[in-house]
Prior knowledge:
37% helix; five-stranded mixed β-sheet; single chain; alpha+beta; binds zinc ion
Amino acid sequence: MTGSSRETLAMEMNQSAASVSFGKRNGCYVNRSVALLLGLLFVSATVATGLLVYYYAPQVRSEHDPLNLARTSVATERPMVPTTPMTTGGKDPATKIDVRLPRSVKPLHYLVKLQPLINGNFSILGYVEVEIEVVEATSNVTLHIADIVTKNETIKLAPSDQVQGPGLTIAKHSYDNERQFYVAELESELEVGKKYVLSMEFEGYLNDKLHGFYRSTYKAEDGSDRLIASTQFQPTDARRAFPCFDEPGMKATFEVYLGREQGMSSISNMPKFESIPIEGQPGWVWDHFNTSVPMSTYLVAFVISDFDHMNSTANDHVLFRVWARNAAIEQANYALTTGPDILSFFEDYFSVPFPLPKQDMIAIPDFSAGAMENWGLITYRETAMLYDPAVSSASNKQRVVVVVAHELAHQWFGNLVTPQWWTDLWLNEGFASFMEYLGVNHVSCSIKHSHNKDVKEFVTFRSPANFLFGRITTSFSILLWPCFLSLCVHVTFVSCDLLISRMAFVFALALLLCLAHSCFRPIALLRLRMIPGCRRSLAEPPQVSQSAAETLYCEVPGRERGRFKSPRSAKDTVCCQFPNFSLSFRKYQNAEQDDLWQYLTTAAHEDGTLPTDLSVKKIMDTWTLQMGYPVIKVTRSSDGTSATVTQERFLLVKNLNSTDTHDYKWWVPLSYTTETSPDFETTKPQRWMMDTEQELTISSLPAKDKWVIFNVQETGYYRVNYDAENWNLIIQQLKDNHESIHVINRAQIIDDVLSLARAGQVSYDTALSVNAYLGKEVEYVPWYSALNNLGYLENMFTRSSGYGNLKTYLLDLLIPLYESVGFDDNLNDPHLDQYKRVKALSWACNLGYQDCVDNSQNLFNTWVQNPSNTSLISPNLKSTVYCTGVAEGGEEEWNFAWQQYLGSNVATEKSKLLSAMGCTKEVWILSRYLDMAFTEGSGIRKQDASQVFAAVARNDVGRYLAWNYLRDQWEKIADYYGSGLFAIARIIKAATRAFNTKLELAELVLFKEEHAGQLGTATRAVDQAIERTENNINWMDNNYEVIMKWLEDNGYSSKLRSQ
Ligand SMILES: [Zn+2]
């Protein structure tokens, strides 16, 4: 993970396992229960959602008066505070329970009234009415509830047309802990087709766990502590705010009332309709919001704050507002200009107007994920929405526009059209991740046009190689990592023209990852251009000059619009119909994967782009219903003129004990080019390899002294391995003239060969020889690919005696790059050059290259002398300079960084300083820092504790310290996070990332044994750490000596002579 969690998917991985322990109160009793699982939310059949429910029996008495819930005065302390420690037991995450609600009734409309006592005891006084329709005969009504005390005497079920009547007799209120169900059991059956209203009062709790309806704190400019209330409901936490049918498929309309104090303001999904004083409670007001469109519960949102806001009038029918702390509202300017622009662009592009009258975006000081696409009210972590040009870096700015575009795309994909169940989350994440590129491109191109100069900005690109492959090591982790789709994305700047040619690719990748959410339904690939005919009209550039092509691509959105208006024209292409599929057919509804395949097949058959006997499903099922992805092996004949192609599943590490006997085969689109007639532009597959073919032969290849390269521009989702001869030809070509191979294929070759070497399918002799040309490489993307992979070697070697050799080698590769980019940053340089500089400097300083260290240290020390000079260090270089400055300094420098951290009003700046403070070489300071990270009120937010921990664990000096801290302080850490197991998993991973010795493995196994029964779903993270450590040990056994020998043979030695 990059630590740049972008979205809320994380939450889905982390629902977990917690148990709840409540005390007794007012005659209520509470059950402890356990929750499970979670990552498995995505797995339909195997879903065992960990649920956390507790229940109360006899309930607090209170008069039913929905408009006056808070009759009791604001108490000072809540007598009983719910906690959700995860250390008290955990079920086997694989336990299968059916977590789905019965389908006998469906919700139509909610009236929700909530009055959170933000500045009181954090109680939430609540009232809910749900109108339901009976679909099948039933004598009970089941809905979700968690962390809520129901007032049973107020629970009433009455026919919709007799709401004022006495209602039906509820024989029993029952609660299903594990599934977080409340069940009203009736004496008689409900009438099918009839509508009823279920209503009740309840009491909730404004928690500090960053989920459900929770509180967030910040310091105002006058130094006072302020509290706000915000929500995070995806995937299953709406039920913590109010009882509801908390499944994405159960859409309804919502009418919301929020009770607030007069000095604050409230926002929700819809515009505020009226404000009414709360009777009997001076200073309190009900904000009443318009009824929403039909939507899923996880998209409902409320924020009550004293924040400032700014309006945009850019869009005439959508009121667009941005909200932030008063002191930070200026930093929302960038989001305020790009947001409406992107919104209008999407409206045009989809030909579907934004369905709500307003769109709010708000930066929340405490936020567990990156952003959440609640309909009409997008919530963000501050770093994902706020941008200060004087302080934040180019990548911070890009992150804002990418996340904003992504969340706005969700307003259609995900919000308007919603997955039926979490297994089909790809429907919203895939589309949003795809559409975000178009949104970003639009911003980029409009900048370019308005300035009439070559501003290559924000066009994004994800390399599958660097992105996904490196993360999936085994079938086990495949379950998890892809789920972080939107979280662990690296984006880099490339020029406008690349975007369009990459977007199909990106879509494929996004889809792949999304599909992989569904464990055991794995990696899917969909390249738009895999579907015959797509490539040409969408992405294939005419043979024009680079600059003309760039202009053309920047105009693509306009061309696309034209196509959408006549979607079934002869020129139409399958690929262009993806957005239409959802939007026109599933509006306000839910969709499943096969719906999309069917839609695409029909379209493809209609315009003849797919043979009538072939369906999209047939191709795609091999990618979506099997785990993993293939490596194809190309073995050329002795004269070179033909090649045998085989495929097998690629595994970074083969599990020798695996009992998996499935015959993995895919429909693989094969494209290739040759040295004799190199063509890196035609990416349309020359051949398809069917899933039934054991091997196929490609003929008409050149003689054996000329190379062939498969997977042109890496448009197919597979790796390629060659025979030794062909690898050598490629190595030679790279050395002689690397530019004759397309830059994307250079990145691909590097990533493939290093990954294949790591997997034991190619020797490191070959892999390291491929790298040998890098001294001449000036493009960012191949470097990115190389450094990402070499990071693993660096990580494995760092504590071994051979590290000196490896370091000499790495510096030898890097110094030419370092020299070419220079230490002095220039914000007017092309973005990729800026990125290249950031990468080169961070590696050079990290490897201790003296020039880099000296420059950084000097800059840092100058800053210490002039702390108010914020323009001293280029925003791009801050991470490296801060880290190096702290590492080379002592307590004084550390304390200086801490003061800067406390004093900064910019979240991205705080984040950089937090990571940098983990770079110190003073062990006691690191130790103190770890303590602070897990202590309430230390100045480090809970949302940032895992970042601090990871920074310490990344530091060679801090690595064991972090691991020991984790072992010693396990209970404390677990308590601190409550159910926030995503953070716990990150911490475990950070601590054990570089483990590669038998001793470390033994420690890990012991840790698991000692905490058996307490780990809850953190068990998964520990199991993964164990597996990773075993793999690393094997890797060291197999490769350490080989690499050492190669380094020695090639002159990279740090051996000392004895005389
Ligand atoms: Zn998303």
